[in-house]
């Protein structure tokens, strides 16, 4: 898993350094996924059943997975979904308004 | 097929056209099932909202924006606002019961001999999420499609 | 009465939902905005009063006790920041009534504004790092949308930079949260502070500290990652610019204060030295960038960056006096910076431009506006008896006490350059005669503007605040002193949240 995360981070940064804004957004997507996987991995993956307590017992039977990282990742995915939906709309509009997808040509606001 | 008025390519095949008509109610029914099932088993407001919006979006692809707006009856923004309102209200009930914000409140309704329905603020919150997701996605998709045309 | 601590988050959320439902009526939305932000202000003052009496107001959402559920905590710093949020929200709501074109209002200006305020309040009040991340994202999403309302070319270009860098910092933040959870197995700030004190390998803790520092540094627009700010803040509507200038970067600064007093206070030599360097470089690069600018709002944007430097300086010096000074700068800056942006919008309304070269003559025709600008500008530069003077005086004295000569010298120098660029605006916009070819109908009052008082009211109010803070330094100083005491004594916070468990 560690290697997968490393490769994801690297490719995300590579994508973000390209000049095209479409690739920039793809880079951002990969980056958020990499961060999610990182949460999953470092918080310790266990092979276990869902953390639900069966009826009649007061504590779960057998080994259960830690529910917190899943909750974190789920929340992060929902947020990333919202933000990226916005980013896609943004680059679409930017492409319409500016007429290029080359970041090097978007320098009006820097001086 | 190319729409003559707008020049936009539409996937206007007969199969999709007809299928969307029948799938729409089925999918929405399924989404309500997911929403209500979500309490004890996998399911819940978020994915139910996604399924429902998937249904409407499919219909939109097949029949275009105008007819979609017609069958929705409400503006997607209304749905979104309603969802948020439900979410906030579900949390607001607990303080009136003297408990911290968002503590789940339960009421059990007995209908007849065997049936009982559990109503809770959790369900209210889930319905809120359902509407919020549905509203958000439809707002985005509808306004994007309108911008295209 | 621990419910009070949640109300500052609930009010904007509820108002946002309400104004979304009533999106057909613009009038209703405007009044919802004014009423809701006014209520927010009142509640926040109540909260400040409560925290002054009790020290900490803690609430466990949903009844789940501290290390497991989400905790909402208000200490004095949070309460002060919430009061500032209320002040700024209220002024912007009034200002927006006159200054927002109808087209923007139809595209959800008010709901987004409420969402932004909810995110800001949430970030100030939460006691859980993942919850902090969520509030950050709520706030960012709202700010993205507000930034691009209108869809002009410059806005799009600015927004792409803004969105990219902020998403990048969010990703770092999220990864850092994951690593923290992997290391100590908790996300509650108080629990975290307690457990990190007992972790042995301090190398990992330092890496985590740096990851958080970079993430918040980007959001606070600190050196070297501040470029997104001047590239985007001058592009949206002026009301939005002012809201961003007042609040958004301060949330990053607040997070830095919270994390580096409460959680990462083990290796002060290492982490706070880096902060010190960052602070100095941020001040210098911001003010030099501003000196080269000739666009009203862009000039002010660079000044935000340089002021952020002062705030971080207070944290980096890490003495009681320095922390007091740092918080004082935050409070003062929120008021003054927002006001300067509002003035720039007013001048734009009168003369139709933000370019300093195309402006002029405001003093001759409207001396009152010129005076209001001067109060804010001189306060920013730190002249007595205005609010900026007290703030900078405290910081510089703290610097001298510690013996950090270089950074103190830099701070003084930056003050002088700030004064220079404020005087530049003064000379160009207010003093010199109107350049030729500029339409002066609105300036001289030939074309009456019935809504002008709606713009003047918030500006005058904020200017009065700046003067009051300066003149009334003593009581504010006492509140801040108590706040700094709380910050420098994390055990209090831990005990307030966790109870007597540890």
Please give a structural write-up.
The complex is a heterotrimer of chains A (111), B (149) and C (502). Chain A has 111 residues and is mainly α. Chain A has one domain (2-45, 68-101). Chain A is 63% helix and 0% strand. Chain A is built from 3 helices and no strands. Chain A starts with a helix and ends in a 13-residue tail after the last helix. By secondary structure, chain B is mainly alpha-helical. In chain B, strands 1-2 form a two-stranded antiparallel ribbon. The model of chain B is unreliable at 1-9 (pLDDT under 50). Chain C has a domain at 267-491. Chain C is globular. Chain C has a two-stranded antiparallel ribbon with strand order 1-2. In chain C, helix 14 (320-351) packs antiparallel against helix 17 (387-402) and helix 16 (367-381) runs antiparallel to helix 18 (405-431). Chain C contains 22 helices and 2 strands. Chain C has helices spanning 7-21, 26-54, 76-99, 102-106, 109-125, 129-148, 153-184, 189-196, 202-220, 228-232, 238-263, 268-291, 296-317, 320-351, 362-365, 367-381, 387-402, 405-431, 441-444, 452-471, 473-487, 490-498, and strands at 57-60, 71-74. The A-C interface holds A 16, 21, 24, 28, 31-32, 34-36, 38-40, 42-44, 68-69, 72, 75-76, 79, 82-83, 86-87, 90-91, 93-94, 97-98, 103, 106-111 and C 130, 133-134, 137, 140-141, 144-145, 148, 151-154, 156-161, 163-164, 167-168, 170-171, 174-175, 177-179, 181-183, 185, 187, 227, 231-232, 234-235, 292-293, 298.
């Amino acid at each position: 898993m560690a290697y997968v995360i490393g490769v994801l981070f690297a490719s995300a940064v590579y994508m973000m350094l390209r000049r095209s804004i479409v690739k920039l957004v793809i880079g951002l997507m990969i980056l958020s996924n990499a961060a999610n996987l990182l949460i999953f991995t470092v918080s310790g993956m266990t092979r276990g059943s869902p953390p639900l307590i069966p009826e009649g017992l007061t504590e779960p039977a057998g080994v259960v997975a830690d529910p917190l990282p899943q909750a974190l990742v789920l929340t992060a995915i929902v947020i990333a979904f919202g933000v990226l939906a916005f980013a896609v709309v943004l680059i679409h509009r930017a492409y319409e308004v500016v007429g290029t997808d080359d970041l090097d040509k978007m320098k009006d606001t820097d001086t | 097929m190319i729409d003559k008025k707008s020049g936009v390519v539409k996937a206007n095949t007969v199969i999709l056209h007809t299928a969307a008509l029948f799938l729409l109610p089925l999918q929405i029914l399924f989404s309500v099932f997911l929403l209500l099932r979500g309490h004890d088993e996998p399911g819940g407001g978020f994915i139910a909202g996604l399924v429902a919006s998937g249904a409407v979006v499919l219909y939109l692809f097949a029949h275009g924006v105008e007819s979609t707006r017609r069958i929705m009856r409400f503006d997607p923004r209304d749905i979104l606002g309603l969802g948020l309102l439900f979410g906030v209200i579900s949390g607001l009930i607990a303080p009136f019961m003297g408990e911290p914000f968002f503590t789940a409140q339960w009421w059990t309704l007995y209908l007849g001999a065997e049936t009982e329905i559990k109503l809770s603020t959790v369900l209210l919150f889930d319905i809120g999420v359902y509407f919020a997701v549905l509203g958000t996605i439809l707002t985005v998709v509808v306004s994007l499609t309108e911008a295209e045309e | 009465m621990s419910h009070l601590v949640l109300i500052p988050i609930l009010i904007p959320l509820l108002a946002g939902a309400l104004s979304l439902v009533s999106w057909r009526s613009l009038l209703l939305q405007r009044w919802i905005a004014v009423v809701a932000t006014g209520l927010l202000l009142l509640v926040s003052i109540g909260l400040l009063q409560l925290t002054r009496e009790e020290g900490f107001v803690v609430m466990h959402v949903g009844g789940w006790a501290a290390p497991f559920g989400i905790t909402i905590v208000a200490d004095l710093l949070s309460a002060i920041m919430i009061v500032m949020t209320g002040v700024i929200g209220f002024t912007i709501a009034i200002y927006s009534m006159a200054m927002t074109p109808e087209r923007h209002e139809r595209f959800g200006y008010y709901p987004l504004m409420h969402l932004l305020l909810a995110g800001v309040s949430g970030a100030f009040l939460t006691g859980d790092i993942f919850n902090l991340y969520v509030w950050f994202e709520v706030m960012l999403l709202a700010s993205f949308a507000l930034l691009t309302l209108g869809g002009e070319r410059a806005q799009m270009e600015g927004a792409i930079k803004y969105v990219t860098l902020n998403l990048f910092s969010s990703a770092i933040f999220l990864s850092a949260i994951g690593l923290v959870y992997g290391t100590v197995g908790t996300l509650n700030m108080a629990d975290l502070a307690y457990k990190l004190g007992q972790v042995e390998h301090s190398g990992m803790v330092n890496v985590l500290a740096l990851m958080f520092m970079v993430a918040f540094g980007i959001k606070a627009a600190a050196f070297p990652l501040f470029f997104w700010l001047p590239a985007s803040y001058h592009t949206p509507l002026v009301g939005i610019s002012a809201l961003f200038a007042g609040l958004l970067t301060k949330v990053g600064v607040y997070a830095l204060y919270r994390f580096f007093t409460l959680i990462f206070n083990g290796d002060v030599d290492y982490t706070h030295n880096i902060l010190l360097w960052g602070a100095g470089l941020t001040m210098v690069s911001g003010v030099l960038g501003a000196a080269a600018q000739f666009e009203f709002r862009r000039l002010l944007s660079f000044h935000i960056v340089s002021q952020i430097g002062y705030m971080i300086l207070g944290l980096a010096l890490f003495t009681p006096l320095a922390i007091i000074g740092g918080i004082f700068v935050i409070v003062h800056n929120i008021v003054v910076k927002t006001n300067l942006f509002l003035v720039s919008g007013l001048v734009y309304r009168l003369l139709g431009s933000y370019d300093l070269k195309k402006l002029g003559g405001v003093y001759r025709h409207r001396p009152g506006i010129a005076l209001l600008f001067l109060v804010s500008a001189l306060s920013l530069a730190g002249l007595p008896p205005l609010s900026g003077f007290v703030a900078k005086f405290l910081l510089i004295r703290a610097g001298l006490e510690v013996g950090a000569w270089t950074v103190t010298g830099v701070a003084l120098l930056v003050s002088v350059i700030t004064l220079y660029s404020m005087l530049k605006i003064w000379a160009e916009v207010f003093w010199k005669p109107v350049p030729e070819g500029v339409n002066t109908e609105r300036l001289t009052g030939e074309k009456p503007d019935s809504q002008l008082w709606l713009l003047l009211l918030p500006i005058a109010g904020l200017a009065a605040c700046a003067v009051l803070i300066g003149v009334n330094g003593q009581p504010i100083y006492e509140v801040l002193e108590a706040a700094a005491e709380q910050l420098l004594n994390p055990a209090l916070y831990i005990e307030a949240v966790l109870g007597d468990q540890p």
